[in-house]
Amino acid sequence: MHADDAAGRVVERKELSRVTIRFSGDSGDGMQLAGTHFTNTSALIGNDVSSLPEFPAEIRAPAGSVPGVSSFQISFADEDIFTPGDRPDVLVAMNPAALKANLHDLPRGATIIVNSDEFHAANLKKASYARSPLEDGSLASFRLFEVPITSMNERTLAETGLGSHEVARCKNFFALGLMYWLYNRPIDPTLRLIADKFGRRADLAVANQLALKAGHAFGETAEMFSEHYVVRPAHLKPGTYRNLTGNTATALGCLAVSQITGLPLFYGSYPITPASEILHELSRFKQFGVKTFQAEDEIAAIGSTIGAAFGGALGLTGTSGPGFALKSEALGMAVMTELPLVVVNVQRAGPSTGMPTRTEQADLLQAMFGRNGESPVAVLAPATPADCFEMAIEAFRLALRHMTPVVLLSDGYLANGSEPWRVPALADLPRIEVKYAEARPGETFRPYARDPQWLARPWAVPGTPGLEHRLGTLEKQDGSGTVSYDGENHHRMVELRAEKIARIAQDVPPQEVWGGDEGRVLVLGWGSTFGALRSAVQRHRREGRAVSHAHLRYLNPFPANLGEILGRFERVWLPEINLGQLALLLRARFLVDVLGYNRVAGQPFGISEIYDQIGQQYEAASSPPAR
Amino acid sequence: MSTPAVKLTRKDMVSDQEVRWCPGCGDYAILSQIQRVLPELGIPRENLVFVSGIGCSSRLPYYMSTYGFHSIHGRAPTIASGLKMARPELHVWVITGDGDGLSIGGNHLLHAMRRNVDLKIILFNNQIYGLTKGQYSPTSEFGKKTKSSPHGNIDHPVRPLSVALAAEASFVARSIDRDTKHLQQVLLRAARHRGTAFVEVYQNCVIFNDGAFDEFADKEWRAERTVVLEHGQPLIFGAQRDKGIRASGVRPEIVRLDDPELQREQLLVHDEQREDPTLAMMLDRMTSPELPVPLGVFRAVERPVYDELMEQQIRQARLRQPPDLEAVFRQGDTWEIEPEAD
Ligand code: SF4
To answer: Per-residue pLDDT tens for A441-480?
Structure first.
């Protein structure tokens, strides 16, 4: 396919199946906005998309410095994709710092589009470049395009009467327009959104629209791009779609539970990166009766939530690792009082404050064991941003049926990453039945009497006549729930609490294996590594290797069939962004020699990295085990 | 959900659990006054909830026949706040102590009070850690010798009411375990207050800090060494009611009413409804033996109530925009994927 451009040149149109672009600039350059628009437009024309923003850790890092760089990566394809891509095919660098911060991620041959106006001495110095990388030949192995974005944007907007600061803020749209041209995307949806967004400042709306159009026109007329690219629509299941980040999906899932059950949702939380968006989202839903409480600290956040759960509400609290540590004692209280509660931990790099904006999977053992005494809770982990919706519903379903706290382990990568989500019809949402206890005339109420199937105790909420009872954190007498210091009773209660969680295994779907049911290598995973693992396994299978993938969403208890699955493969290989936490649990539980692959660099795994590693495992498995 | 008001008695408030405080502990008197006051409120028993932390006082919910929650150390205000927000129709009490409420849980107490959540917070102040067997507490006096301060306590004590006033709690009062009548009145006023009611009760720990308040609270000289606050009335005290308090600048001083120089208008008149907590703060600084210790309601003002505001926002949001989950699902950009024809 080709197109004749206005100048009569023949511009080649190449078909690609997948492209990964990274927009990068100063945190004031509007890269997140440009990336979001690109994502939405790509989704609108039917590509499957996956995106991931990356913010500077320091909010006030100096402008033009490497720590102040903000980026947004998006991958779009004509087939199902599972990750925002490994290494960008294209980098848009708005200044020297953005180039410096991202260069090491680029494969040889990648395209770099720089805003050449910004490569002046002062900016080079801020990015610690001794000489301009545009001139010293250090970018020879890339396809470099120097575009004077700042000055062209200024010229475009010279007549608008806007101040220089406001003009400068439009240049992200110039860059976006250029990328739209290069990847053959329509500019109309963005033009419309700009009009909506700047409703009250018509002058700004017009300026941004002009910048977008100018960037697009530049792509068309400039001589520098000899080709532009087409990515065809993907084959997604029919339906209505929208883009969803993991945090929004978590919030919507919990909201859905409130609608399904008819119970009001209470969210107690303390602001923390990267979980705060859940609080922002839920605080917008007052019309649904959602009560959000910004507590004085993490302990008050969970304490208030437990109080609300005692009162019969859907109790939800959310945080990240350091906050989760603070919640430990109160979580133990929820175990002791056997109240339904969902705790979302959006994991980030630790220990301690760690790297707040970077992702990690290192809170699994904390979720499992980070409390005093034998204190079991159910632990779930969504696999993708949109899966957060489904798993939030699952977390509440289990919490309510089994009268237990459930920890939902999300992470920074899921929280901020996005993917298309097929909007469910309300009728398709799962049913969840909830029954509060009611008084039976002539019977003394026993708050710790258990239902024989699941061992759950009744949920008796204040305000119900005849069920007045005292919950407490002291050990309970089995059945009556009064305080008991009897050793035998304590042993029984410890076992009952453990058994109650263990029985949840009968209430979760069996573990699925993608690929063959048996074979040489089983790639195991959990949480946000899903995309990289599935893509890498898919590639090996296409190349004819007997590799399968099982991704765990239920981490405690494990699905009932998991042990049997592990036994069917020669090798079980488990990459984790920690030092082997799930591997430790699996080895202890199933006595299977689970092999770990562990890299804790604050970054998701790349597909090619996992692909190579699986290759090595595959080779090693085919040779007889050395004993 | 609530049943029509029934006539309850003190007995209806007593649970079947054996009370386990040390014989002679001041906690008994407080428990019994709470049980006496509740029936007067006309609130159905199932709508009463007692939430506590950890410590001797925090065992109280077990002895009530209402709903109760004996939680973890210092966190009762958080659980009670969450419960009240979720279920504003409930009548929620917090039972705490000087260690529970002002040491480990100080932060929560502060924030519950500044928000003005509709909670009745009763702080049993015995100036010692009882349950852990006798360490100094945040209200123990400077220099006090205890198990953990054999050379004398070098912590400066905190004044519970000053903390409450600094948080601008809307109801702040003090009473004492051994004056059952006064305690009853104060508890009743607290129960009827809208918003956070904070009541400090001087409570004698017979085992680890016996007689801590005798210096002013002993029956023999209580009238001489305490002053009962009454709204709109001058501060007058003494067995013969022959002494009063006058403010010299911001410093209170004792005056004799039979002093011929004294003009009655110079006496300090109590005003519990003052927005500004300065006067109440000054009263809280009156300590024995220099001055009589004030008992009663220091402050009772109206302030917007947190849980009511929360309900109000929900009602308003519903008027503006009825709940529509499907619309929320479809917020932002959506696109259609059509079935493929093949
Ligand atoms: S230790 Fe003191 S406060 Fe505790 S029950 Fe005994 S007397 Fe009462």
So the answer is: 999 999 999 999 999 999 999 999 999 999 999 999 999 9
- Per-residue pLDDT tens digits for B102-143: 999 999 999 999 999 999 999 999 999 999 999 999 999 999
The CATH number fitting domain A2-230, selected from 3.40.630.10, 3.20.20.390, 3.30.300.20, 3.40.920.10: 3.40.920.10
Domain-wise residue ranges, chain A: 2-230, 242-425, 519-622
Of residues B86, B318, B334, nearest to A291 (C-beta): B86
Task: Tell me the CA–centroid distance for residue B97 and ligand 1, in Å.
Answer: 11
Q: Does B47 touch chain A (CB under 8 A)?
A: yes
User: What is the predicted ipTM?
Assistant: 0.97
Angular region, A182: left φ>0, alpha ψ -120 to 50, beta rest: alpha
Domains within chain B, CATH numbers bracketed: 10-232+271-309 (3.40.50.970), 234-269 (no CATH)
Helix H or strand E segment including A33:
helix A31-44
Give every residue of chain A whose pLDDT is below 70, as ranges: 1-13, 57-60, 223-224, 226-227, 623-627
What is A237-306 written as a DSSP string?
PSEEEEEEEHHHHHHHHHHHHHHHH-PPEEEEE---TTTHHHHHHHTT-GGGT-EEEE-SSHHHHHHHHH
Determine whether the interchain pair B72/A333 forms a contact, defined as Cβ–Cβ distance below 8 Å. Answer: yes
Does pTM top 0.80 for this prediction? yes
**How far away, in angstroms, is B58 Cα from ligand 1 center?**
11
- Ligand 1, pocket-test mutation among B18, B52, B100, B126, most atoms within 8 A of CB: B126
For residue range A289-311, list pLDDT tens digits in order.
999 999 999 999 999 999 999 99
Chain A residue nearest residue B12, CA to CA: A468
Residue A271: asked if its preceding bond is cis (omega within 30°), the reply is no
Report chain B residues whose CB lies below 8 A from the CB of A297. Answer: 107
Q: Establish whether domains A242-425 and A519-622 are of one fold.
A: yes
**Three-state DSSP class for B68?**
strand
Partner-chain contact B332 A297, CB within 8 Å: no
Rounded Cα distance, A88 and A73, in Å: 8
Please state which CATH number belongs to domain A519-622: 3.40.50.920
